[in-house]
Each structure stands twice: as structure tokens, then as C-alpha cells.
Amino acid sequence: MKIPDLSTIEEAAERIKGQVHRTPIFTSKSINELVKAEIYLKSENFQKAGAFKFRGAINNVLSLTRDELKHGVCTHSSGNHAQALALAAQIVGIKAYIIMPENSSKVKINAVKYYGGIITFCKPNLASREETLKKIQQETNACEIHPYNNYRTIAGQATSAKELLEDINDLDYIMVPVGGGGLLSGTALATYYLSPKTKVIAAEPEKANDAYLSFYSGKFVPSVNPQTIADGLLTSLGSLTYPIIRKYVHQIITVREESIINAMKLVWERMKIIIEPSSAVPVAALLESASCHNPKLEITGKRIGIIISGGNVDLTKLPWLNS
Amino acid sequence: MKIPDLSTIEEAAERIKGQVHRTPIFTSKSINELVKAEIYLKSENFQKAGAFKFRGAINNVLSLTRDELKHGVCTHSSGNHAQALALAAQIVGIKAYIIMPENSSKVKINAVKYYGGIITFCKPNLASREETLKKIQQETNACEIHPYNNYRTIAGQATSAKELLEDINDLDYIMVPVGGGGLLSGTALATYYLSPKTKVIAAEPEKANDAYLSFYSGKFVPSVNPQTIADGLLTSLGSLTYPIIRKYVHQIITVREESIINAMKLVWERMKIIIEPSSAVPVAALLESASCHNPKLEITGKRIGIIISGGNVDLTKLPWLNS
């Protein structure tokens, strides 16, 4: 397979239409006034399974051959991809084998079970996750669906930016958070094809700045022991996402933890929508830029789309209650 | 003035169009499965100033005579009506004098200030509130806009049910919370005129059950020292709202505090929208009905609209974190 071109993304959009929600776009007069820009939040927190991840998962599942379908799908994930893949598999009536670390939160385990995922627990480290996945794959012949390092996943995630660009004209920037880079690379490709004047800006926690370092050094830097509340952004870039990001993304901005918490609370308070910490990272970049005399990004008067990646939050552990 | 008839409500809708948001209606497959009914949430938490109260406030302000406009408006309120009236006044460029108890939360005081309201503090009891309001009114000649006991307020609140009935056909029930009864009486009138087969059901906290007692005894019962987390539902019915409710509402159901907390958390988790405790009260009635062999309300298979009254919550004081 090759890097998704425009027709690949259009085919993905057509394939998953009817299965994904065309998510709403929210605006807030008071946040616009605060940051002196026009902000459009493409709200994937209202996507099925609560995050954009469902787009990539269902695009994969609907692309499987009849033979592949028989054996089901598998992945290792402690987060939104696990739920997304379980639901996608449930929709087409196949099995989803999900490898989860044994210390995963009960909320996440229950969500995967709710969507009919078959869970195998492993030790909470990458080696054990990969080993357990390999074992399950050998036993079941299930098809591995990678959460980001997979062109079908990337093409699926690209459909969110496609919808945003169809709905809102003349965006100066599209901003997304970056973890493994599936959403970012999909967004960058869709934007390059559909609205080349729009710049794609990634936002990343300062304390998990591997994509930032990789992007500006030109040398892949893995994520080592990241310490951020943005729990969807802990992973390293992938071998497929990194080159796309290097080529098609305009800028990566890092933000402080405090800004992420403030941004998350601001969106909850003013917009009445629940966004997870990872989704608050691009909003944090706006808040930091708006309160700085020499900002990393010039936002005054700009039209800015943000893809709100998800809304899966443990409501008993809100970051502003810890301080 | 007389009880709003259909044309009064239609005129109100026309008057406030362009100033109010036509709020979205949300559904949730998983909550539908849980309660075995089709639920439609008309989300006034996305209304300007975060609650349905803006409808009544702006309908009043836009109905003022040129002479009345000069002197501005006034009210006493510690809650959503204060913000709504301040914003409505700001929009038409007049003054809003808001009497607030001196122990009001900082969040609420700041919100009223944000919308340009002129705050006078009073002692936290009804006598002081009314006395202070009278004094301010004498000083300023401002027009008092009552939060619920006012036919223009009621006609404004009725426009939410009107929109819901236009957007969703064949509802079996419309459910709303009841405090002073402005939303309930407006909803009951709109439904009676526009969809007489739809039953209007109010939900009220068991620990603030004055509307329930008034409704079924036929004798007005005031709210005395109510103890509920649904802080929008503490007031007594009004002399204008009570007769409308007696005549046009089909049933009032009381619910336990625990159910209100569970319902609020459920909507946050599954639907990713922030609703305040008062808004969770009708959802709590559904949860109690769904888990009971002999429910107060038969909901299985029914099509049920709920007006989500607002989303103004102190995010540092979430009720499920207290237990």
C-alpha cells in the first residue's frame, strides 16, 4: 500500500458513510473573544465510541476480504482504539480480540466489553503487549489493525478533516493533537489535497514532546516515559506517520500541562461539551499564543479549525481537582 | 395580560428568532437501550448564557416599550435567570440591575459581570432579596422581569418545546424539571396547542417536592427549606404558573437524589454533554422507571422528549465526588 492519495481518502469517506457520525462543529463567542480568533471545534467526542478512532477502525474492518473477516481482528490498546475496534467489529459481526494491560482502568475495560470485545490481559509494558498480541494472532489468525501505523487507519482519520473543510471555508489553520500521528497525518493529507492554503499545526504536551523533537531534528525520536495528563498522546510516531508528518505538517507547538488543564476546563465551562485532556492540547496552544507577546503561532483574526479528538474521560479524576 | 395562547407563543418565537440559538437535539443509542425507550434531549445547555432562561429574558426585553427601555430591567436571582437577563439587556443595549445574595458563588457573580449586569448584593433570604429589589426599582425605575411568574417569560420558555415538537414527531411524552414552573407551564401550553396527544410530565426532586404536593392536593404548597443538589429547582410555584400546571400538565414524578446524580453522570459519560443537576431530574425519572417493576411512568417503547434546562455547573463541585 502507498500513502493515501485524494481518491483513497474519498473512497474511505464513501465506505464509512452511514457508519460514522458526521460530527457537529461547535463555536463559542466567548472563547473567540478570549483568543481573538474564529475557532471551529470539529467534535469527534460525539463520534461513535467517543473518539475519532472509530473512523480508522471501521475503515479497516470494512476493507477486509471475505477470508480475513472470518478470523476477526486484533489489536493492543488501552485507550480509544480498543473501544473503536471492538465496536467496528461488532457492527460487521466479527470478533475483536483486544489486548489490554492488566492495570487498565475499569471504565475502559467495561467499554470494550460493552462493545463485545474479547479481552486478553497482559503486563503493562510494550514488550508484553506485543508478545501477547502475537500469541493471540497465531491462535486466531485475526487481522491486526494498528491504531495509527496503517494507511487504512490514516485514510479513515483523514475523513474528519475532509468534513471540516467541506463545512467551513477558508480556514487559516487546522490544529490537532499528536500522539502516534494517525490523526495528524490523515489531517495533513486531507488538508494538502482539499485546502492547500490551510496550514496544519500539531500541538503536543511539552512533557511528551517526541513528535516535536522528531519533526524539527529530522531524526526519529521515540517517546520515553512521557508524563502528561493527555493520556492519548503517550506513544511514539510510527514509521508510516512520521514521513507524512515531516512532509505535510507546517508546525508543531508544545504546551505546558497547566495550559492543557485550563483549556480543558474552559471548553467544558463555556461550551458545555466534554473533551478529554488530549483534545485540549490544541486549545491550550491557542490560550498560550493569545496570552503571549511573542507567540509561537500568530492567531489574531485567524480562522482556525480544531479537531476535538475525543471525550472519554474518567469523571472521577478531573485534573483541575488535583491542584 | 392573559395566559399565552398559541399566537402569543408564535409571536414570541418570531420575536426572539435570530437572538436565541435553535438548540440541538441529541440522542444516545446506549441510553435508549438502557431505558428501552427513544429519548430526545433538547439541549438548552447550548442556549446563550447556558440555559433555557435566556428565551424568557430576551422575550421580555424585546417586548419593552421605548419608555420602559430607557430605565433598564431588574430582577433578583442567584442563578441562570440573572445571567440570562444581563445578557438580554446587553444585547439591546440597556441596563440590567441584578440583586444577588451576598453568598452567591464566584462563578455566578463573574458570569453576570461578564454580561455587563450591575450587581447589588443582599442578605441571602427572600425578604432581603425582595426589599433590595424594591429599593433598586424605586431608584432606577427599572422594569422588573420575573424569572417565572410572568406571562412573557412563560411564552419565551414555551418556544423550546415548540422547536422540539417541530423537529421530532409523535412524541409520547415531553418531560421537564419543575422549580418555579416557568419552563413547565410554557412547555405544557406549547404542547397542548401543538401536539395535544403528547403528555407533559414534570420531574421534581423528592426533597423539593412542593410542586408535586401542590399538583396533587389542589392546594398551593410552598417550598420550605428544600435539600437537593438540583439548585435550579428550589423555588415555589408562582401564582401564574401554578394554575397552568394544574390544568395542562399530566403528571409530576418525584425522584431520589441518588438517581439525579446517577442520571447526570450517565449523560456526561455517554453523551459527552454537560448538564446541570436540575436537568438530570427528568432523566433520573426515566432511570427509576426503567429499573422498577411497577414504575410511576410506563416508558417502554415510548418516544420521549426531554428539555435539558441548562449546563451551568461548578466544575470543582461535582456531586459524584462527594460520596
Q: What this model shows, in words?
A:
The structure is a homodimer of 323-residue chains. Chain A contains 13 helices and ten strands. In chain A, the strands form two sheets. A six-stranded mixed beta sheet of chain A has the order 1-2-10-7-8-9, sandwiched between helices. With 323 residues, chain A is an alpha/beta fold. Chain A has two domains: 6-48 and 151-321, Rossmann fold (3-Layer(aba) Sandwich); 54-144, Rossmann fold (3-Layer(aba) Sandwich). Helices cover 45% and strands 15% of the residues of chain A. In chain A, helix 5 (80-92) packs parallel to helix 6 (106-114). Chains A and B meet through helix 12 of A and helix 12 of B.
The quaternary state of the protein chains shown equals homodimer
According to CATH, what is the topology of the largest domain in chain A?
A: Rossmann fold
- Gyration radius from CA atoms of chain A, angstroms: 18 Å
CATH architecture of the largest domain in chain A: 3-Layer(aba) Sandwich
Number of strands of chain A: 10
Which pair has the most extensive contact?
A: A-B, 19 and 19 residues
Model regions low in confidence, pLDDT < 50 over at least 5 residues of chain A: none
- Provide the domain count of chain A: 2
Which structural category fits the helices and strands of chain A? alpha/beta
Give the topology string of chain A: H per helix, E per strand: HEHEHHEHEHEHEHEHEHHEHHE
